């Protein structure tokens, strides 16, 4: 007696979550609920938790990070001893293994495509340029349209590339076009493709015996899966799947890789996704699309795109106060 019990309209509890708010949850990063721990260990754990939370990327930092990372990648890749004799022996073994499997089709594709000059020249330039252009384009798209997923997806790319460096060191491999006694056509030299790292003076700036794993496949498949998982337009998702498929045809037709090199690139990409999954606790496409800025709030443009929770009332405009002269008699 004397106690009152408050219930919401239609018998629902006021603590029930709004279905609209629940549907909007994947779009924004949830606020941390773990209370901060005290002491040095607590500060370290808090710092680790903050690093593992999706955050809005900073443009200047990303440009610097990507530039330094690619410089280090090129430095380490080209510093790996070429080990020409071992690389040629490994190429002979790969070629023999593919023949035993009945899947040694690279030479046939190489000769067939080389018979169409405009096609093979186009593929040479495709191999030399799109590897970088498309990858950078996808990073820019992620930065602008999916900032909450940017860091996790970038980590996939970085981890994939890092483990590939280990493969270059442990398993030097000559590309088919440099094999001794084989009948492959070196399309880059034959058609004098400008800008390729395998032609002219550029070949002295890169390790020519680092074909396993293929990062053309690793990076193109990363681009394709990212676009397929995050793009909303059906045509963009289809292009995302076609890009690594066409890249596989190009690396084989130009005799720059065996198809088994592509398998190595896929394995490296799987490792990259595993690293990102362990660090962030989810695959990149399952992370929130938008994240708060450093002051803990979304920008007005991003916030306007999100549905308003049902529990949040629509602000009403207050009526203007009446003046003495405006009163009706």
Radius of gyration: 28 Å
Question: Helical percent range?
Answer: 55-70%
The average pLDDT score comes to 78
Q: Note poorly predicted spans.
A: 1-25, 324-329
What characterizes the major β-sheet?
none
Span between termini = 53 Å
The structural class is mainly alpha
What is the number of beta strands? Answer: 0
Number of helices: 12
- Strand and helix order: HHHHHHHHHHHH
Strand content of the residues, in percent? under 5%
From the spread of the alpha carbons, the general shape counts as globular
Domain Inositolphosphotransferase Aur1/Ipt1: 93-274
Region (Disordered): 1-41, 304-329
Pfam family, one: PAP2_3
Transmembrane segments: 59-76, 125-143, 155-171, 209-231, 238-256
What does this structure look like?
- It is a single chain.
- It is built from twelve helices and no strands.
- The chain has 329 residues and is an all-alpha fold.
- α6 (117-145) crosses α10 (234-253) and α9 crosses α11.
- The two termini are 53 Å apart.
């Amino acid at each position: 007696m004397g106690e009152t019990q408050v219930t919401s309209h239609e018998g629902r509890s006021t603590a029930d979550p709004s279905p609209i708010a629940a549907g909007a949850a994947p779009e924004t990063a949830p606020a941390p609920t773990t209370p901060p721990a005290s002491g040095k260990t607590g500060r370290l754990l808090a710092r680790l938790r903050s690093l593992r939370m999706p955050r809005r990327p900073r443009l200047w930092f990303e440009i610097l990070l990507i530039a330094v990372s690619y410089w280090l990648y090129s430095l380490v890749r080209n510093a790996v001893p070429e080990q020409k004799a071992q690389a040629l022996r490994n190429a002979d073994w790969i070629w023999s293994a593919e023949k035993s499997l009945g899947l040694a089709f690279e030479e046939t594709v190489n000769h067939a495509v080389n018979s169409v000059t405009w096609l093979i020249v186009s593929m040479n330039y495709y191999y030399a340029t799109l590897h970088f252009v498309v990858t950078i384009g996808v990073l820019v798209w992620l930065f602008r349209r999916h900032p909450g997923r940017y860091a996790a997806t970038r980590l996939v790319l970085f981890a994939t590339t890092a483990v590939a460096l280990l493969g270059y060191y442990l398993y030097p491999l000559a590309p088919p076009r440099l094999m001794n006694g084989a009948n492959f056509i070196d399309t880059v030299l034959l058609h004098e493709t400008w800008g390729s790292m395998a032609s002219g003076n550029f070949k002295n700036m890169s390790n020519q015996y680092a074909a396993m794993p293929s990062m053309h496949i690793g990076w193109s498949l990363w681009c394709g899966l990212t676009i397929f998982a995050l793009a909303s337009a059906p045509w963009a998702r289809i292009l995302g799947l076609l890009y690594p498929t066409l890249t596989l045809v190009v690396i084989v037709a130009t005799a720059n890789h065996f198809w088994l090199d592509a398998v190595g690139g896929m394995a490296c990409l799987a490792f990259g996704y595993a690293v990102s999954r362990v660090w962030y606790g989810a695959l990149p496409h399952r992370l929130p699309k938008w994240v708060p800025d450093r002051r803990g709030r979304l920008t007005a443009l991003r916030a306007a795109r999100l549905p308003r929770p049902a529990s949040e009332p629509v602000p009403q405009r207050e009526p203007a106060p009446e003046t003495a002269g405006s009163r009706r008699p």
